[in-house]
Amino acid sequence: MKNALKKVFKHWELFLVIFLIVECAVFGIANPKFLRADKLMNSVVNYISVCIISLFVTLVMITGGIDIQAPSIIGLTSIIIGVLWSDAGVNIWVATLCAVIIAALCGLLSGFFIAYCGVQPMVVTLGGSFLYSGLALLVSGMSATPAYQGISGFPNKEGKVYTDFRFLGKGEIFGIPMQIVIYIVLILLCVWILHRTKYGERLYLIGVNQQAAEYSGINTRATIMSTYVLSAVSAALAGILLTANMNSAKYNHGASYTLAIITAVVLGGTLNTGGKGSILGTVLASLIICFLRYGLPICFNVDTQNLDLPVGIILVLVVLGREIAGQGMLSGLFKRRKKKASAA
Amino acid sequence: MKNLLKARWMSSLIFLVVLFIITGIVDPSFFKYSSIIGCFNNATMYTLLAIGIAFVIMTGEIDVSIGATLGLTAAMTGLIAQQDGSVVTMIAVCIGVGALVGLVNGLGVALFGVPSLIFTLGTNGIIRGLIFLVSDGRTVENFNGTIGAYGNKVLFAEITLFYTIAIALVAIAHIVLTKTRKGKYFIAVGDNAGGANLVGINVKSTKLLAYVLCGMFAGLGGFVFASKYGQVMTVAGNGYEMTAIAACVLGGISLSGGLGNMIGAAIGAVIMASISRLLVFIGLPPTYDNTITGIMLIVIVVVDALAQRRSIEMSRRKRLLSRTATSATEGGLEA
Q1: Is A161 helix (H, G, I), strand (E, B) or coil?
Q2: Which of B116, B289, B290 to probe the A interface (max A CBs under 10 A)?
Q3: pTM listed for this prediction
Q4: ipTM field
Q5: What is the pLDDT, as a whole number, of residue A105?
Q6: CB pairs under 8 A between A and B
Q7: Per-block average pLDDT, block size 10, for chain A (344 residues)?
Q8: Of B113, B121, B254, the CB nearest to A327
Q9: Nearest-CB residue to A123 (from B129, B133, B301)
Q10: Which secondary-structure segment (H or E) carries B269?
Q11: Are B294 and A132 inside 8 Å of each other by CB?
């Protein structure tokens, strides 16, 4: 029994799959409405920013870094698109492209300081989160629309069908929301990058031992920097989808996602010291959190504003369980106690 | 080593003074006793949070749940105040709840070995939920009694009572860390946990103690919050953990542990709290607040990292040079 438990915790993705199935079963029994496909997909759409960014933050954390600036880049992208489109009169797609490029530059800047100046990732991205959210606020000041209102009225729909920019946020392909389609494409892309390319292998090696990676001929600095650019671009993507979905460009979109993103990544089994983790784990963890946030209110009448509590409890219990089962902590404790007893 | 430490908090003090002088040059009306003291008084809450988390950061761990702890204790203070509770009860509850949260964090991190960022993220969520349960999802306000009066109480020379207490705590923490045996353990554990273990320091209990202290300071911060603002929303204290970490970084405390001191953390807290105030004097709108904070933080840590790397390289070069010089003379003797 104990060995079986150990095995399950060792194969973390397996544990997450079991958890997800149990979760769906429990919610499904409590309220059959939970299992409706469109509702489930909608719950992912509501949390799409965290889902997408956590994919790429996984890459960052595998190299042993951390990225807490991504949420501020969501807001920055959103407001840049809004201001360029509505106040400067730029074509919406050109504006979107500009926003992505600026986000990539933001990632490049932070990545440069981390990789080439050797500053701790947490500190730089903490500074980055202040800086980019501040910039977003300044950009929103250039607009004629008051900052708190948000810029709206993006290229909308013809008849009943969403087209153009808003198709990204509201459109459907064969009944599947466009955002989910993009999410699936990004998952496949990330799996390919991390598990099928040399670049992915390098990320793991850097996370295990940066010096060894450097000596084996990998340009570790450029590689580390590139992960921050990737995560910034993913944040830009999330910002675009959020803007298109809500039909509003605001400087503080996604400001509260910092801890949610890290939660999804670490619950997915990625070590924050680097060298271990997988995209599958992150995806499963994001889905677990999505369904929790959607299922608890409709099945067990939990207040929608108080969803941090269950997510926090699950995170704490799961990581504690992993440490206890994975390292044989319990047996270790008893052994030590026995030794002490015999010494006394 | 001691000189380096001294230089680290001295440089943040110099930075603070330069900030004040620049503000004063742009707007001479800033050079008044009351405006400068105002900056310090304003920093009370951040000072408490920063010295609390400094204990944890020095041992090489991190705690992102202190903002939530502050919110929880503030909400509890408010609830007690609504029922005409005494101030002593409030402070006791604040410190007690804070210590309890710290104990849970410490047990998870030190005893069970969960990475500190992950564990405190989890407890952060739980405490946020508890705030919601305690306050019933509503803003806690309409306090009875005298608690509001304490927030603005001036002790002497325009320094508020709370800031005096905070400074006293900074001084005590500094003396404990630098002069007592147990206090030196915090730095030792953060510098090299394995080495500390070998010389007989109990690493786990030191980390546990650091978390409990951190929670207690966050609890005190919650009391200050409640009496300063007179109302506590469910999102109270959101993001304060990041500000406190930034304050520690500005004060020269290394996030990898084992380096830094309390005076630095206190100065960092004043810098973080003063930015928005100084911007008003300089004439920039408060929308520049985050941008300036971000630029300042990044510039300081990058310059610090480059200077440190330079000093390491210089000392290595010196060592290499001296080695080649001695081997050359040895070679000469052999010849």
Answers
A1: strand
A2: B290
A3: 0.81
A4: 0.76
A5: 92
A6: 159
A7: 58 83 86 80 85 90 87 89 82 87 92 87 86 86 72 66 70 80 90 88 87 86 91 91 82 79 85 81 89 83 76 81 65 48 45
A8: B113
A9: B301
A10: helix B262-282
A11: yes
In a domain, A291, yes or no: yes
- Residue A19 is assigned to a structural domain of this protein: no
Contact B306 A266 (CB under 8 A): no
Cβ atoms of A76 and A139 closer than 8 Å: yes
We report the CATH number of the domain holding residue A184 as 1.10.3470
CB within 8 Å: A312 and B128: yes
In angstroms, what CA-CA distances link B44 with A219, B265, B277? 46, 12, 14
Q: What is the pLDDT of residue B6?
A: 55
Q: Which residues of B touch A137 (CB under 8 A)?
A: 287, 290-291
Residue A21 lies in a domain: no
Please indicate whether, in this complex, the C-beta atoms of A309 and B130 are within 8 angstroms of each other. Answer: yes
Interchain CB distance below 8 Å, A131 and B309: no
Give B102-107 contacts, CB < 8 A, sequence gap 24+: B102/B69, B102/B211, B102/B212, B102/B213, B102/B214, B102/B215, B102/B216, B102/B218, B103/B208, B103/B211, B103/B212, B103/B215, B105/B63, B105/B65, B105/B211, B105/B214, B105/B215, B106/B207, B106/B208, B106/B209, B106/B210, B106/B211, B106/B212, B107/B208
Instruction: Tell me how close the Cα of A116 comes to any Cα of chain B, in angstroms.
Output: 10
B132, A305 Cβ separation under 8 angstroms? yes
Q: Can you tell me whether residue A151 is helix, strand or coil? A: strand
CB-based contact A273 B132, cutoff 8 Å: no
What pLDDT, on a 0 to 100 scale, did the predictor assign at position B50?
92
Q: How far is A154 from chain B (nearest CA, A)?
A: 26
Cross-chain CB nearest to A122 (options B115, B255, B306): B255
Residue A338: predicted pLDDT: 46
Contact B294 A319 (CB under 8 A): no
Q: Mark yes or no for CB contact A130/B246 under 8 Å.
A: yes
Q: Which residues of B72-92 are buried (b: 16+ CB within 10 A; e: fewer)?
A: bbbbbbbbbbeeebebeebee
| pLDDT at res. A158 | 61
Q: With CB atoms and an 8 Å threshold, state whether A259 touches B242.
A: no
Is residue A27 included in any domain, yes or no?
A: no
Q: Which residue of B has its CA nearest to A269?
A: B118
- Is domain B2-284 given the CATH code 1.10.260 in the classification? no
Preferred mutation among A54, A79, A116, A119 to probe B, highest tally of B CBs within 10 A: A119
CA distance A281 to chain B (A): 16
Nearest chain A CA: its distance from B246 CA (Å): 8
Nearest to B298 by CA among A224, A228, A130: A130
Distance, in Å, from the CA atom of B102 to the CA atom of B216, rounded to the nearest integer, reads 7
Which secondary structure element, helix H or strand E, spans residue A176, and what is its range? strand A176-177
Over residues B151-184, the pLDDT tens digits come to 677 777 777 888 888 889 999 998 988 888 888 8
Burial B226-262 (b: 16+ CB within 10 A, else e): bbbbbebbbbbbbebbbbbbbbbbbbbbbbebbbbbb
Range of the domain at A44: 37-322
User: What is the number of domains present in chain A?
Assistant: 1
Residue A12's Cβ-count burial label (10 Å; 0-12, 13-18, 19+) is buried
* Higher-pLDDT residue of B11, B173: B173
